[in-house]
Amino acid sequence: MGTTHFSGLNLKLSAIAEGSAGGFTVTGIKTEDKLLAVMAVTLVLGEATHNTVAFTTTDLTAEFSISADNEIYNTGGTDLTDMFAFVLWLDKDAS
């Protein structure tokens, strides 16, 4: 998890591993924090050209909410199998 401080704002960034839709552990996030973004990343190894990786990103922010301290929940149902995601939030305790 990373923290960036901007003029009184503490933004935190964490990565979550793949998994089926449901709850995901995000250490440090709290129910009073503000979820800003959940961006899923899919990596595809190049078959025609060796040692190449292509990736796509998908904004899934609207599908997620903070369900409890240290957990976000995917209410939209998108399966994150074969993906990982970055979670960005505003830590309201630290601002």
Please write out the topology.
Layout: E1 2-6, E2 9-16, E3 23-25, E4 34-45, E5 53-59, E6 64-68, E7 71-74, E8 84-90
Antiparallel strand pairs: 1-2, 2-8, 3-7, 4-5, 4-8, 6-7
Structural commentary:
- By secondary structure, the protein is mostly beta strands.
- The chain has one domain (2-90).
- The protein contains no helices and 8 strands.
- Strands 1-2-8-4-5 form a 5-stranded antiparallel beta sheet, with no helix packed on it. Strands 3-7-6 form a 3-stranded antiparallel beta sheet, with no helix packed on it.
- A hairpin with a 7-residue loop joins strand 4 (34-45) and strand 5 (53-59).
- The mean pLDDT is 87.
The succession of helices and strands, N to C, reads EEEEEEEE
- Based on DSSP secondary structure assignment, what is the total number of beta strands? 8
Number of helices: 0
Rg value: 15 Å
Average pLDDT level: 87
> SS-based structural class?
mainly beta
- Beta-strand percent range: over 45%
Terminal Cα span: 17 Å
Helix content: under 10%
Low-pLDDT parts are: none
**What count of structural domains?**
1
Overall form: globular
> Main sheet, how many strands, which sense, barrel?
5 strands, antiparallel
Instruction: Please give the order of strands in the largest beta sheet.
Output: 1-2-8-4-5
